[in-house]
Amino acid sequence: MELSKIDLGIILGYLVLTVLFGLYVSKRASRDMDSYFLGGNEIPWYYLGLSNASGMFDISGTMWAVTIMFVYGLKSAWLPWLWPVWNQVFIFVFLAAWLRRSNVMTGAQWITYRFGTALGAKLSHIIVTVFAIISTLGFIAYFFEGIGKFATIIFPWDLVFEMGPLLVTSEQAYALIVIGVTTIYTMKGGMYSVVGTEVLQFIIMTISCFVIGYIAFNSISAEQVASAVPANWKNLFFSWELDLDWTGYIDSVNTKIEEDGFSLFGFLFMMMIFKGIFASLAGPVPSYDMQRVLSTRNEVEASKMSALTIVVLSIPRYLMITGFAVLGIVYLGPELQALGTGIDFETILPIAIQKFVPIGFKGLLLAGLLAAFMGTFAAFINAAPAYLVNDIYKKYINPNATDKTYIRYSYLSSILIVVIGLIGGFFASSINTLTLWLTSALYGGYAAANALKWIWWRFNSYGYFGGMLAGLVAATIVPQLFPDTTVIYLFPLILLMSFIGCFLGVVLAKPDDMEVLKHFYKTTKPWGFWKPVYAEIIKEDPEFKPNSDFWKDAFNCFIGIVWQMTFVLAPIYLIIKEYYSMAWVVLLMIITSIVLKRTWYDKLKIQ
Asked: Could you tell me the pTM of the whole model?
């Protein structure tokens, strides 16, 4: 990519600024463990919300989103349900409050709060720590793949070199450099550094998104888009089959659709709903999203923070995603058609930046995208060492060490995790492959045990350990047994194996200690099947009231999912100039916002 000195200066200046900021806040962050990993629970919820949004705005995910928008059009708005993105709705409606009431530092520490300290609880504590580390390593590999492809097109220098028997390509070399810089400022500044830099990154990214949206809106007419895409590309809805034929436009896109395994779109949608309910009820996985919830001041701010993430993330991000996708379709379509097969669609984003963004703004945008990558990566690097240091070293090895010792081991843990994750990144095949494995296989193994832990009193620590262990084994083995099957379609089998592990643990072991269950139920106040525990509590506290908000929460989740989709669809319809559809979406946005204001926001209170 041809970059001016101005653009390069902006990019390099930003990288230097983030490192200096991390060093600046390092003294404050290193006061104690709470300060390092949770910011001392003193960071305002709106900063944490902006930080959380920035952490979800990563390069790999953006490249993937631009690719699927290019290929699937309006139907791509459904594909983030693979994660599912609406787990954030479940979090802000009720799970953020439930989680924050625990007053713990990590998801593994939460296990002690839920299951106690017996052998089964210790096994569960270890298995969730293992899951947190494995998922972080998977995401590092995912980030490594994305930032490498992106940075090679940004920077003009060829950095191929040999490292022992390994030939390091330019993609890998640039990824190593950017990840190294990010690790330094995160390691030094902890949560303060992560949140501070991510708020700055969010501002840069938002400006960049509006610039790209403006360029696309003024460069392309509705007629140009219509003539460059096949029938049904602009149709949000679908039947059993995708019914999207790129023949005569860009023939190789049909091959891409076949490779993705999304042709039976109706069946895919059913799988996303099925998976989404379990994955969302399970709550946030032990990574940066959970860390933000635990970092808030109280349960009300935890809920507000999670809702703010949806609002500030979706509109600017989809202005950029749609802008780049339609610019690529209209102006790169003939060129891509001429190339025939073998197109790497994941490079559409950097190619579009090279061709369509002017000098100055190009540097700002590239700095913003690097910022987005660094923010997400930093969030994982801040969250993961907490599990090794707080949940392994402090709990089992050296419980009486000084805070300085724990912080020092946090530095060491960060480096170790990054190095192991990078080794995995060298062998990753593509962003899409990693995305599907992370969302469908690994998180499929997480869903069963972590949904049951909230809602069923008899679900004991051995059930949790058995479900998590079975899920991790299934997530590793099942995709290998069915290599030609898209991973999302294997989710029911992985979930079933995890449920079997859960129920074996429940049947073969006693219930957990009633005092532990009473403390958990009384402080967390979940709904679900807790009648025996409730009966014991009211013997001591006749005034205690159980949570009767299941139907209200279910209603708010449904409204929240619709509400979230309006923030995705409004910018898409704006960029492709479908104003009639946009007007209906905005009307729906207003209606759902009013409903949530009355049924959710107005009823927030500290229990």
From this structure: 0.83
